[in-house]
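Need tokens for this chain, all 595 residues.
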Amino acid sequence: MVVHVAPRNLTLFLLGNISINGQYQSYKPIIKRKVNSLYFDLILYSHYKKNVNSSRQTNETIDIETKNISIDFHDVLRVEEKNCSIKFQYLNNKYCIKTDFNKTLCNLSRENNSTNISKQISYYQENLHTKIFQNETNSKTNEPLIICYYTNWSQYRDGSARFYSENVDINLCTHIIYAFAKLDNDHISPYEWNDESSPWSIGMYQRIINLRKSNKLKILLGLGGWNHGSYPFSNMEYLGSRHGSRPTDKQHFTNLLIELKRAFRPFNFLLAAAVGAGKSTIDAAYEIPQVCQILDFVNLMSYDLHGSWESKTGIHVPLYSRQNDNKLDKELTQDWSVRYWINNGCSSSKIVMGLAVYGRTFRLASSTKNYIGAPAVGPGNAGLYTNEQGFLVYYEICTRVKQQGWTKIFDEEHKLNYAYKDEQWIGYDDLYSINYKIQYVQEMGLAGIMFWAADLDDFTGSSCNEGKYPLMNKAVNLIRSQIQSTISSTKSSLQEKKRIVCYYTNWSQYRPDQAKFYPEDLDGSLCTHIIYAFAVLNNSKLTPFQSNDEDTQSSKGMYSRILALKKTYSKKILLAVGGWNFGSADFSHTVKNEQ
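Here are the structure tokens for all 595 residues:
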């Protein structure tokens, strides 16, 4: 479970001591409301000396607990001052809050004439068991949410795969979640050494925040993550559903969200969570109706449903189940997860469906058994840039499928791709299958989509020959246009008996660098027919033109690679004979007599 918090305005959580008339007092602030100034409820433990019997002149100390003091915060300054009642640090900047305690105490005396402490009930106590604040996300607009994760470890990849906050295409996102911060002794702490700014450099936090200067982005901080575990959260009565969690975490997580929501509400903070998609995790971890009511949106982690931890191959992001799937596999689909959350009390308008810009790989037990559900003996080979077995990002997948002769299959039941070569196997989304995902999001009335993660797409456009951020661009363009996907338009074209004919030229493979074009670069969803150009006539016999048109013992030829598109797109593929450079002499020779 990951909790995300985003300030729309700077909000202060001040814990420690406060100086009043030169004496420090312990306090615990609880946010009360926001008017023209900031107001906090303080539980202030003041110590007053009082003469109980003035005639005897005996000094006796009585502790008086004073609650509900509303401190009037007049100014927030970006520089540290010597005469400052409250100081705090935020993103390496020191701030001073000037206060008028005399005015505050005068207001307190006017508001609370009674000395009965029990009548001075704090805002938190008043609302502890009342109805949770109603969410307003999406109430003013129908714009879909597009959540993009930024991972602070992607800065460490090699070469062109290195990814910084400035590489994020802010036009593709409505929200960016910075992953991750951590809990350290119940305090939110940076995870990477350069998250916070230093005297000599701008930190990653500030660099991601700077993206807001040119765009109305909402930026959230992701707290937790899989590697962080759940034990620190359990210490805070937080959710956990793995080793280190407690049986009471399910209810405690709801209680934590209630407190966070009440604290954030006056300042319009966003509160979201990334939640599990598997039934066992959901049942153990979430009180669905309460969680969905509290959160502004719910990021459904509808990926990693299968992986190399299993003994058989499986696509980790299947949209639908297959007819012959067993009970468990039928539950491990995006459709099942979405419906389970909805059927158990979560509004569809709160659910953001997660899309994976990567694939999960396997090592086959036998290269001849390469179907979905085939026996597997471990993770596939690590990618050149990500260097993680069992996992390939989209640009690493493109390199294999488009340049290394992998066989690619589109599964009509899952509405998803898998590809294989020798004993290597992978399942993943591409430009074609993503159409089905977006159409599903629209049909189900979901809040939007979430990408894990921006750095995993072909962000430079140098590997897939599909432009920069091809998967994210395709998904965003579809969901923003609110039009039927390419699938629907293709079906309509076929029904009307219209033909869309695409030529593939076998010499385009020889262009330099990014201009190279292979059969796998062809978006088959755009065509009803593909014509391979060209073959030639040699002594009146049909003959390949390029040296690699036909298969060899060491590699698949271009003919086979273009025919492989039929498995994915069910297209009609034709072979063209001739071409301008071939001339007409051989045709004349062929037809000069009836033989």
